[in-house]
Specification:
Number of helices: 12
Largest sheet: 3 strands, antiparallel
Structural class: mainly alpha
Order of helices and strands: HHHHHHHHEHHHHEE
Length: 278
């Protein structure tokens, strides 16, 4: 259940944010200049308004997804970081002493509440339009993060995206132990998604077994993120004779026909969508 009323935070510790989150912090600027109330309106029909326990505010959950996108974090790690990173808590509109959600809540939100294949695209696009209006985004170059879309955008393929993220994991590992390279599996050289997923699963297993390496924070974050990507892609493996647009399943009784593509991102690490293909 979600309430029509937004809760007012009366914590005596709110002044801490003025000390530890600078005025020029990107997350502070986004929070102060962008009105996210449209999120509540767009997601209102996904919740009950008069029955059940109070839900975690959908605006906060959506902001968690933005943080995931901006900082390339898994569900587990974005929640973990929000425990101690005051800029994250400020962005999430939490009091410094507030407990954070469980990561499974965020996973369920993005997989169940946002089952509509165009809803997340629309929400992020709207957020970026608001940020552009406030001059929070200046560049034209892009990087990407994964989501399902209805074959509307020409972005990196799933194989390219997985390769990019596995490369980041290997790089983080090499900074800790260069000799790990000898233990890694041979890289996949095909453009087949199943082959790429298999390579990444083998890579993940090797890093997992090297506990002295995998426990380093930078390695652990990249490892968790790659694990999440592999699980998400396996969950929605496409099945079609068309080599480009394919059919995949969002759940047991819902499906989409299109691509596993990626939201475009600016250098400021905020999403920006290209024009739809005609």
């Amino acid at each position: 259940m979600i309430s029509d009323q937004q809760s007012l935070n009366l914590s005596p510790f709110m002044a801490i944010y003025d000390l530890v989150v600078p005025k020029d912090n990107m997350l502070r600027q986004i929070n102060e200049l962008v009105d996210f109330s449209f999120i509540l309106e767009e997601l209102r029909d996904k919740y009950c308004l008069d029955n059940g326990r109070n839900a975690v505010p959908p605006i906060r959950l959506f902001k968690y997804l933005l943080l995931k996108t901006i900082f390339d974090l898994s569900d587990v790690d974005v929640v973990e970081r929000s425990k101690y990173d005051m800029s994250f808590k400020y962005f999430l509109e939490m009091a410094p002493e507030d407990p954070v959600i469980h990561s499974s809540t965020l996973t369920k939100f993005r997989k169940l509440r946002l089952k509509d294949t165009q809803l997340l695209d629309m929400l992020i696009q709207k957020s970026v339009e608001l940020a552009l209006e406030k001059d929070l985004i200046a560049s034209n170059s892009i990087i990407v993060d994964a989501t399902h879309t209805q074959a509307r955008f020409n972005q990196k393929s799933p194989v390219e995206f997985l390769r990019e993220k596995s490369k980041l994991l290997r790089k983080a590992v090499y900074q800790v132990d260069e000799h790990m390279k000898e233990k890694f599996p041979s890289k996949n050289v095909t453009e087949d998604l199943v082959d790429e997923l298999q390579y990444n699963k083998q890579l993940i297993e090797v890093v997992n077994q090297a506990e002295a390496v995998s426990h380093y924070p930078k390695v652990k974050e990249k490892l968790n993120y790659l694990k999440e990507l592999v699980e998400d892609h396996e969950e929605h493996l496409p099945s079609s004779d068309d080599p480009d647009a394919r059919k995949g399943h969002k759940s047991a009784d819902t499906s989409f026909f299109g691509y596993k593509t990626h939201i475009a991102m600016s250098e400021e690490r905020l999403g920006k969508f290209p024009s739809p293909c005609s």
